[in-house]
Amino acid sequence: MLRKLAIVFALVIVGFLVVVAMQPDEYRISRSKTIAAPPAAVFAQVDDFHHWAAWSAWDKIDPKMVRTFEGPKSGVGAVYKWSGNDEIGEGKMTITESKPNELVRVKLEFFKPMEGQAMADMTFKPEGAGTFATWAMYGKNTFLGKAFHLCIDMDKMIGGKYDESLTALKSVVEGGAKPADAAPPVTTSTPTASATAK
Protein backbone atom coordinates (compact mmCIF):
# COMPACT_ATOMS: atom_id res chain seq x y z
CA MET A 1 0.00 0.00 0.00
CA LEU A 2 2.73 2.44 1.00
CA ARG A 3 4.66 1.53 -2.13
CA LYS A 4 1.65 2.34 -4.31
CA LEU A 5 1.16 5.67 -2.53
CA ALA A 6 4.83 6.47 -3.02
CA ILE A 7 4.55 5.69 -6.74
CA VAL A 8 1.44 7.86 -7.09
CA PHE A 9 3.12 10.70 -5.20
CA ALA A 10 6.22 10.41 -7.38
CA LEU A 11 4.10 10.50 -10.55
CA VAL A 12 2.27 13.59 -9.32
CA ILE A 13 5.59 15.34 -8.62
CA VAL A 14 7.02 14.35 -12.01
CA GLY A 15 3.82 15.48 -13.72
CA PHE A 16 3.98 18.85 -11.97
CA LEU A 17 7.64 19.32 -12.92
CA VAL A 18 6.84 18.51 -16.55
CA VAL A 19 3.97 21.02 -16.60
CA VAL A 20 6.23 23.69 -15.06
CA ALA A 21 8.99 23.00 -17.59
CA MET A 22 6.51 23.42 -20.44
CA GLN A 23 5.56 26.96 -19.40
CA PRO A 24 6.77 29.87 -21.60
CA ASP A 25 10.42 30.86 -21.27
CA GLU A 26 9.45 34.53 -21.31
CA TYR A 27 6.59 36.60 -19.92
CA ARG A 28 5.07 39.97 -20.67
CA ILE A 29 2.39 41.89 -18.75
CA SER A 30 0.98 45.15 -20.06
CA ARG A 31 -1.84 47.64 -19.59
CA SER A 32 -2.73 50.82 -21.48
CA LYS A 33 -4.66 54.02 -20.86
CA THR A 34 -5.57 57.04 -22.98
CA ILE A 35 -4.70 60.30 -21.24
CA ALA A 36 -6.13 63.65 -22.33
CA ALA A 37 -2.79 65.44 -22.43
CA PRO A 38 0.16 65.64 -24.85
CA PRO A 39 2.93 62.99 -24.60
CA ALA A 40 5.33 65.57 -23.14
CA ALA A 41 3.12 66.03 -20.06
CA VAL A 42 2.85 62.29 -19.42
CA PHE A 43 6.53 61.63 -20.13
CA ALA A 44 7.56 64.27 -17.58
CA GLN A 45 5.75 62.38 -14.80
CA VAL A 46 7.37 59.04 -15.64
CA ASP A 47 10.93 60.11 -16.51
CA ASP A 48 11.46 61.53 -13.00
CA PHE A 49 11.21 58.98 -10.17
CA HIS A 50 10.50 61.80 -7.70
CA HIS A 51 7.01 62.06 -9.25
CA TRP A 52 6.06 58.39 -8.88
CA ALA A 53 4.70 58.69 -5.33
CA ALA A 54 1.79 60.72 -6.76
CA TRP A 55 0.51 57.91 -9.01
CA SER A 56 2.29 54.56 -8.55
CA ALA A 57 0.00 52.00 -6.88
CA TRP A 58 2.97 50.34 -5.20
CA ASP A 59 3.86 53.58 -3.42
CA LYS A 60 0.48 53.48 -1.67
CA ILE A 61 0.93 50.01 -0.14
CA ASP A 62 3.30 50.96 2.67
CA PRO A 63 3.07 54.57 3.97
CA LYS A 64 6.34 54.05 5.85
CA MET A 65 8.27 52.82 2.83
CA VAL A 66 11.72 54.40 2.58
CA ARG A 67 12.73 55.74 -0.83
CA THR A 68 16.26 56.59 -1.92
CA PHE A 69 17.10 58.54 -5.09
CA GLU A 70 20.52 58.40 -6.71
CA GLY A 71 22.13 59.69 -9.88
CA PRO A 72 20.57 62.39 -12.07
CA LYS A 73 17.14 63.77 -11.19
CA SER A 74 15.60 62.21 -14.30
CA GLY A 75 16.45 60.31 -17.47
CA VAL A 76 19.12 57.66 -18.05
CA GLY A 77 21.01 56.74 -14.89
CA ALA A 78 18.34 57.91 -12.45
CA VAL A 79 17.95 55.37 -9.63
CA TYR A 80 15.05 54.75 -7.25
CA LYS A 81 15.49 52.33 -4.34
CA TRP A 82 12.73 51.28 -1.99
CA SER A 83 12.53 49.35 1.25
CA GLY A 84 9.24 48.56 2.95
CA ASN A 85 7.08 45.98 4.64
CA ASP A 86 6.77 42.33 3.62
CA GLU A 87 4.24 43.16 0.92
CA ILE A 88 6.33 45.81 -0.83
CA GLY A 89 9.73 44.27 -0.11
CA GLU A 90 12.98 45.83 -1.22
CA GLY A 91 14.30 46.65 -4.64
CA LYS A 92 15.80 49.06 -7.12
CA MET A 93 14.78 50.71 -10.40
CA THR A 94 17.20 52.26 -12.87
CA ILE A 95 16.26 54.17 -16.02
CA THR A 96 18.30 52.60 -18.82
CA GLU A 97 16.72 54.38 -21.81
CA SER A 98 14.82 57.61 -22.14
CA LYS A 99 13.42 58.98 -25.39
CA PRO A 100 11.64 62.28 -24.77
CA ASN A 101 7.87 61.96 -25.15
CA GLU A 102 8.22 58.37 -26.50
CA LEU A 103 9.75 55.88 -24.06
CA VAL A 104 11.06 55.35 -20.54
CA ARG A 105 12.76 51.96 -20.04
CA VAL A 106 13.51 50.77 -16.52
CA LYS A 107 15.58 47.90 -15.16
CA LEU A 108 13.86 46.33 -12.14
CA GLU A 109 15.85 44.51 -9.46
CA PHE A 110 14.03 42.78 -6.63
CA PHE A 111 15.96 41.87 -3.46
CA LYS A 112 13.21 40.97 -0.96
CA PRO A 113 11.06 38.93 -0.40
CA MET A 114 12.35 37.19 -3.57
CA GLU A 115 15.33 37.99 -5.76
CA GLY A 116 14.69 38.63 -9.42
CA GLN A 117 15.07 40.97 -12.35
CA ALA A 118 12.79 42.30 -15.07
CA MET A 119 12.48 45.16 -17.52
CA ALA A 120 9.63 47.64 -17.75
CA ASP A 121 8.72 50.03 -20.55
CA MET A 122 6.38 52.99 -20.47
CA THR A 123 5.61 54.12 -24.01
CA PHE A 124 3.72 57.20 -25.16
CA LYS A 125 1.98 57.56 -28.52
CA PRO A 126 -0.02 60.58 -29.69
CA GLU A 127 -3.73 59.80 -29.99
CA GLY A 128 -5.67 62.78 -31.26
CA ALA A 129 -5.04 65.56 -28.75
CA GLY A 130 -4.08 63.02 -26.08
CA THR A 131 -1.62 60.23 -25.35
CA PHE A 132 -1.96 56.45 -25.49
CA ALA A 133 0.29 55.29 -22.61
CA THR A 134 1.31 51.64 -22.25
CA TRP A 135 3.13 50.17 -19.26
CA ALA A 136 4.67 46.74 -19.80
CA MET A 137 6.89 44.46 -17.72
CA TYR A 138 8.73 41.57 -19.33
CA GLY A 139 11.54 39.13 -18.67
CA LYS A 140 12.76 35.56 -18.76
CA ASN A 141 11.14 32.82 -16.74
CA THR A 142 13.45 30.72 -14.57
CA PHE A 143 12.15 27.31 -13.48
CA LEU A 144 11.15 28.81 -10.13
CA GLY A 145 9.53 31.71 -11.95
CA LYS A 146 7.54 29.31 -14.13
CA ALA A 147 6.28 27.50 -11.05
CA PHE A 148 5.38 30.81 -9.40
CA HIS A 149 3.50 32.02 -12.49
CA LEU A 150 1.70 28.68 -12.68
CA CYS A 151 0.43 29.01 -9.12
CA ILE A 152 -0.27 32.76 -9.10
CA ASP A 153 -1.98 34.81 -11.79
CA MET A 154 0.81 37.33 -12.34
CA ASP A 155 -1.04 39.08 -15.15
CA LYS A 156 -3.94 39.80 -12.82
CA MET A 157 -1.72 40.75 -9.87
CA ILE A 158 0.76 43.00 -11.70
CA GLY A 159 -1.73 44.11 -14.35
CA GLY A 160 -4.17 45.23 -11.68
CA LYS A 161 -1.53 47.51 -10.16
CA TYR A 162 -0.67 48.83 -13.61
CA ASP A 163 -4.35 49.68 -14.15
CA GLU A 164 -4.49 51.50 -10.81
CA SER A 165 -1.27 53.37 -11.55
CA LEU A 166 -2.28 54.44 -15.05
CA THR A 167 -5.65 55.65 -13.78
CA ALA A 168 -3.87 57.72 -11.10
CA LEU A 169 -1.33 58.97 -13.65
CA LYS A 170 -4.23 60.05 -15.88
CA SER A 171 -5.76 61.94 -12.95
CA VAL A 172 -2.47 63.62 -12.04
CA VAL A 173 -1.67 64.72 -15.59
CA GLU A 174 -5.18 65.77 -16.57
CA GLY A 175 -5.75 67.56 -13.26
CA GLY A 176 -2.45 69.38 -13.39
CA ALA A 177 -1.61 68.12 -9.90
CA LYS A 178 1.94 68.33 -8.67
CA PRO A 179 3.75 65.38 -7.04
CA ALA A 180 4.02 67.50 -3.89
CA ASP A 181 0.22 67.36 -3.60
CA ALA A 182 0.54 63.72 -2.52
CA ALA A 183 1.42 62.72 1.04
CA PRO A 184 5.16 63.41 1.48
CA PRO A 185 7.12 60.14 1.28
CA VAL A 186 10.05 59.22 3.49
CA THR A 187 13.05 59.77 1.24
CA THR A 188 16.78 60.10 1.23
CA SER A 189 18.89 61.30 -1.66
CA THR A 190 22.42 60.60 -2.77
CA PRO A 191 23.65 63.60 -4.74
CA THR A 192 25.62 63.17 -7.94
CA ALA A 193 29.29 64.06 -8.07
CA SER A 194 28.55 67.13 -10.18
CA ALA A 195 26.11 68.39 -7.54
CA THR A 196 28.71 68.23 -4.79
CA ALA A 197 31.62 69.64 -6.79
CA LYS A 198 32.74 73.14 -5.72
Question: Would you mind describing this structure in some detail?
Answer:
The protein is built from five helices and eight strands. By secondary structure, it is an alpha+beta fold. It has one domain (32-190): Alpha-D-Glucose-1,6-Bisphosphate, Chain A, domain 4. The chain has an eight-stranded mixed β-sheet. A hairpin with a 2-residue loop joins strand 6 and strand 7 (130-140). It is elongated, with a radius of gyration of 20 Å. The chain starts with a helix and ends with a helix. The relative contact order is 0.21. Residues 178-198 have low confidence and may be disordered.
CATH class descriptor: Alpha Beta
From the spread of the alpha carbons, the general shape counts as elongated
Instruction: Tell me the name of the CATH homologous superfamily.
Output: START domain
Backbone CA Rg: 20 Å
Major sheet: 8 strands, mixed
**Rounded average pLDDT:** 81
Number of domains: 1
**CATH architecture label name:** 2-Layer Sandwich
In helices, the fraction of residues equals: 25-40%
